Each structure stands twice: as C-alpha cells, then as structure tokens.
Amino acid sequence: MYRIRELREDRDFTQAEIAEIIQTTQQQYSKIETGKSDISGEKLTLLARFYNVSSDYILGLTDDPRPGK
Question: What is the residue range of 39's domain?
Fold first, then answer.
C-alpha cells in the first residue's frame, strides 16, 4: 500500500487538491490512494517532488523519506 494517504493527511490536503496537483480526478486519486488502481511513474514522480520524499518511501520500499538516499 502506498503512503500517499498518510502524507496527504499529515499536511492537511484534500484528495481533490492532490488530484489537481498530479493532474487527475479526485475519483482516480481515491482509487490510487486505496490501492484499487496503480500509480503511474509520472504521477509518482509528481507526488515525490511535491512532498519532498523519495518515490521508494511512497511505495513503502524504505522507511527513510529523504529523496536521493
């Protein structure tokens, strides 16, 4: 499961706000957040840059959120 819900809620964003940032609909973003749909590499990169974390952190492959590690 992706960590995007945790990241979004920690920063007090709505699904609609994040969906706009990654250029998708709120409905599609909700599916990504709940694991009902996969995230594309492009959208993963946008989220990692927006939250200033590594894509590996978002994907749950590391517990270190720092990009470039």
Answer: 4-59
For 58-65, which contacts have Cβ atoms below 8 Å and span 24 or more sequence positions?
58/2, 58/3, 58/4, 58/7, 59/2, 59/3, 60/1, 60/2, 60/3
In angstroms, the CA 8 to CA 63 distance is 17
User: What is the rounded CA–CA span in Å between residue 12 and residue 56?
Assistant: 22
In a domain, 15, yes or no: yes
Return the pLDDT at 57.
Answer: 95
CATH of the domain at 22: 1.10.260.40
pLDDT tens, residue by residue, 14-49: 999 999 999 999 999 999 999 999 999 999 999 999
Is the pLDDT at 69 greater than 70? The verdict is: no
